[in-house]
Amino acid sequence: MTPTTPHGYEPTIRPLTGPEELPLFTRLSYSLDRELADDLADGRRRPEWMWVALRGDRLLARAAWWARSAGDAPLLLDVFDIDDDAPAADRTDAGVRLLRTAMAALFPSADHPPAYCRFVPSDWRESETERRVVEDRMSILERTGARLLVERLRLEWRQGTPVPRPGTRLAFRAVRDPEELVGLMTSALEGTLDAHSRAALRHRPGPDVARRHFEDELARYAGPRDWWRVATLPDGEPVGFVVPARNDRNAIIAYLAVLPAHRGKGYVDDILAEGTRILAECGVPRVRAATDVGNTPMAAAFRRAGYVDFERDIDMTWI
Question: Is the pLDDT of residue 6 over 70?
Fold first, then answer.
C-alpha cells in the first residue's frame, strides 16, 4: 500500500535532472528566480542542489542551495518555497519531507547544514499574507531543527542621493596588506553587536573568526583593494575601517567597523561617508549594505548617510 500524506499520495522528492527543468522549478516564485539560470551557467548552483516535492504534476515545495563561486561547496539555502494555496497540513508535510530528504542526501555527515536566508519585504509583519508566507516557512524549517539567528536590514544608497562628506576629525589611508585588515577585524569583534560574528565567536577565537571572514568573503569580492580604507586620528592611531567592494551584482559596503576604544564618538558617520564616496565616484547606480535589525547604532548611521531600508532578510541556522 502506498503511504499517504494528510491530504493525498506521498510526494515524489528529487533533485532536478538538469537546467531544462527550470520551468518546473519556477512554478513556485521568489525574487531570486531571475538569477537561477545565470547561477547554473556560472556554477554557483547545480541541478543536484535544486530539489522539488511533486504530487503528480503539482509542485508542492522546492529548495535550492547556492555557492559563492563555481567549485565551492553550498554556502546557503537561499530558495525554499511551498505551495501557499495548498492546505496547511499538506504544505507543511511537503516542506518538511523535502528539506529532510535533500539535506540527508547533500550533507550526510555535516553537523550543521548551510544556513538559510530569505529576503522579505520591510513591512512583512504588517501584511497578513506576507506574514503567513514568512512564518510558514520558518515553522517548517524549525521542524527540521533550524532556529532564527537574526533578522537583518538590507539598505541601499541610490544614485542622485547626496554623497555624505567625511568630517575633519579623521584621516583615511589604504589598508597596507591583508594582515593589517585581519588584525583590525579581530579588534572590532570585541563587543560586536553583529549576530553572525557573535555566533561564530561561541565556537572559535576571535583571530580565527576574523581570518575566516576575510578569506571566505572579503578576499573574494571584486573591486580593487585600494578602495579599502583605514580611518585614523591625526597621530595615525586607527579608529576603524571600511571595505567598499563589488559582489556579483552590486557595489557594496562589505564591512564597516569602529574599534572598541573609539565607539560612541560619531566616527561611524565619517567612515561610512568615505566608503560611500569611493563607490559613488565610480558612477554606480546603487550601493548596498546590510546590518542586524538589533544593531541600532549602525542602522542609524546608514540612514543618516542617505541609505534607505528597502528589504529585510531572515537568517536561520542549524547551529
Answer: no
Mean pLDDT of 152-163: 96
- Characterize the bridge pairing of strands 4-5 and 251-258: unpaired
Could you tell me what percent of the chain has a pLDDT over 90?
91
At residue 165's C-alpha, the angle toward residues 164 and 171, to 5°, is 135
pLDDT in tens, 36-64: 999 999 999 999 999 999 999 999 999 99
State the pTM of this model: 0.91
The 10 Å Cβ neighbour count of residue 145 is 15
Which of these, 20, 2, 15, lies nearest to 48 by C-alpha position?
Answer: 15
β-pairing verdict for 76-82 and 115-120:
parallel
What cell does 100 get? 529532510
Q: Which grid coordinates belong to 105?
A: 542526501
Q: What is the pLDDT of residue 8?
A: 56
